[in-house]
């Protein structure tokens, strides 16, 4: 089980609270009319390109100069769940098939609202031109995005007591 960074913990707390409240539409979510955008938090089920790797020592992403296909050897011989936790995957935004979709990406909105002391720009990100989070929330989302590993796209299982 991975240990979450401080920023991931803050983000997951917000997302968990939102889910516990029934995943309502959130006020102030950015929207775009652009279609065919990419998801910067794709999971192993639909992520087909790697655009960044998480540097555990630095606690932030190291962006690749270009997004690369997930190697076939990884798909066939490694645990893709583990691979997806250590690398940021890009995939086609699933829109209405995604738990976070409510006319726009709620997850991108939550990422844009977590404050980080270091500001990162999207200029080094291989998917900046197609990233739904940037198109809906502006480049400020990159500041937080750079400090999180892949996040779950489905609601976490509820603990029963």
Structure commentary:
The chain is 29% helix and 17% strand. It is α+β, with helices and mostly antiparallel strands and 161 residues long. The protein has one domain. A 4-stranded antiparallel β-sheet has the order 1-4-2-3. It is globular and about 40 Å long. The two termini are 21 Å apart. Residues 156-161 have low confidence and may be disordered.
The oligomeric state of the chains shown is: single chain
Q: Note poorly predicted spans.
A: 156-161
Task: Give the beta-strand count.
Answer: 4
| Number of continuous helical runs | 6
Approximate strand percentage = 15-25%
Distance between the termini: 21 Å
> What is the ordering of alpha helices and beta strands?
HEEEHHEHHH
Task: Give the number of domains.
Answer: 1
Please state the average pLDDT score.
81
Proportion of residues in helical segments: 25-40%
Backbone CA Rg: 15 Å
So what's the overall shape? globular
* Biggest β-sheet description: 4 strands, antiparallel
Structural class of the helix and strand makeup? Answer: alpha+beta
> Numbering strands along the chain, what is their spatial order in the largest sheet?
1-4-2-3
Helix and strand arrangement:
Elements: H1 6-20, E1 38-42, E2 49-55, E3 60-69, H2 72-77, H3 80-86, E4 87-92, H4 106-113, H5 132-137, H6 141-145
Antiparallel strand pairs: 1-4, 2-3, 2-4
